[in-house]
């Protein structure tokens, strides 16, 4: 079966050592959900070529689209391009179009380090975006995005505008009973309707007015509504505080 959905690889020692709190992973999760592309996995790895190679290779096996965050730049720890090239069995080449952009942007003659921004896996293409000189680097549905959150977000928007997903319909129930009291009903509906995803999330915050939040989601609105109806019919009387 051909891989579907997306997978992400967040790259950076700074994330794993708590020097920086990752903002790109959560943002990617939200944006993919908004456009209806399921996220299959998200992995955080250090700035080590072999580890990145393994992570990208795994991501490509499980998903159609792969997003990387971080490791794109002119310094010694920016090794994402080389790692992606290795994971895909390609050489690293210098893109003339990117070299021209760097020269155009630079005030003085670009340094050898600055020109590293023009390196890419062989066969890579650039996706340009309005209002920014720095394009998205992509090769065979692997999108190499920068780690700086502001740049990551604008480049992600440029990519997602080109991809097609299937929006998910979501309904929620808030219950005043614990999971053990409602598990049998949830199990029965989930088994009868495997094409609808049912989630159960207990809450331990005493300031909330509910004990369990149940989510019902799927790509077919009618199926989601049917599952909701079955749950409402099967749950103990008075246990549903509200629905959304």
Give the overall shape, derived from the CA principal axes: elongated
How far apart the termini lie comes to: 35 Å
What portion of residues belong to β-strands? 25-35%
Count of DSSP E strands?
12
> Which spans of ≥5 residues are poorly predicted at pLDDT below 50?
none
- Helical content stands at 25-40%
Q: Strand arrangement, largest sheet?
A: 2-1-3-8-7-6
Sheet of most strands: 6 strands, mixed
SSE run = EHHEHEHEHEEEEHEHEEHE
Q: What is the overall pLDDT average?
A: 94
Structural class: alpha/beta
Total DSSP helices: 8
Query: Compute the gyration radius: what is it?
Result: 22 Å
Verbal overview:
The chain is 36% helix and 27% strand. By secondary structure, the chain is α/β, with parallel strands linked by helices. The strands form three sheets. The chain has a six-stranded mixed sheet, sandwiched between helices. It has a four-stranded antiparallel sheet with strand order 10-11-9-12, covered by helices on one side. Strand 6 and strand 7 form a beta hairpin.
How do you describe this structure in short?
The chain has 244 residues and is an alpha/beta fold.
Present the secondary structure layout.
Layout: E1 6-11, H1 13-16, H2 24-35, E2 39-45, H3 49-62, E3 65-69, H4 80-87, E4 92-94, H5 96-105, E5 119-121, E6 125-129, E7 132-139, E8 142-145, H6 149-160, E9 169-175, H7 179-192, E10 197-202, E11 212-218, H8 221-234, E12 240-243
Parallel strand pairs: 1-2, 1-3, 3-8
Antiparallel strand pairs: 4-5, 6-7, 7-8, 9-11, 9-12, 10-11
Helix pairs in contact: 2-6, 3-4, 7-8
């Amino acid at each position: 079966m051909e891989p579907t959905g997306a997978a992400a690889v967040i790259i950076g020692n700074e994330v794993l050592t708590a020097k920086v709190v990752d903002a790109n992973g959560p943002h990617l999760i939200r944006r993919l959900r908004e456009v209806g592309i399921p996220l299959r996995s998200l992995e955080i790895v250090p700035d080590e070529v072999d580890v990145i190679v393994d992570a990208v290779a795994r991501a490509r096996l499980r998903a159609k689209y792969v997003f990387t965050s971080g490791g794109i730049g002119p310094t010694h720890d920016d090794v994402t391009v080389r790692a992606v090239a290795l994971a895909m069995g390609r050489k690293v080449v210098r893109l003339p179009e990117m070299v021209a952009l760097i020269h155009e942007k630079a005030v003085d003659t670009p340094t050898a380090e600055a020109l590293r921004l023009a390196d890419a896996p062989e066969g890579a293409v650039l996706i340009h975006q309005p209002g920014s000189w720095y394009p998205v680097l992509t090769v065979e549905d692997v999108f190499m995005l920068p780690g700086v959150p502001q740049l990551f977000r604008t480049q992600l928007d440029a990519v997602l505008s080109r991809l097609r997903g299937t929006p998910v319909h979501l309904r929620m129930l808030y219950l005043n009973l614990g999971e053990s009291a409602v598990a049998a009903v949830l199990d029965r509906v989930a088994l009868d309707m495997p094409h609808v995803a049912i989630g159960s999330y207990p809450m331990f915050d005493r300031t909330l007015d509910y004990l369990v939040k149940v989510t019902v989601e799927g790509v077919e609105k009618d199926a989601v509504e049917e599952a909701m109806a079955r749950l409402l019919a099967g749950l103990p009387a008075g246990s549903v505080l509200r629905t959304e």
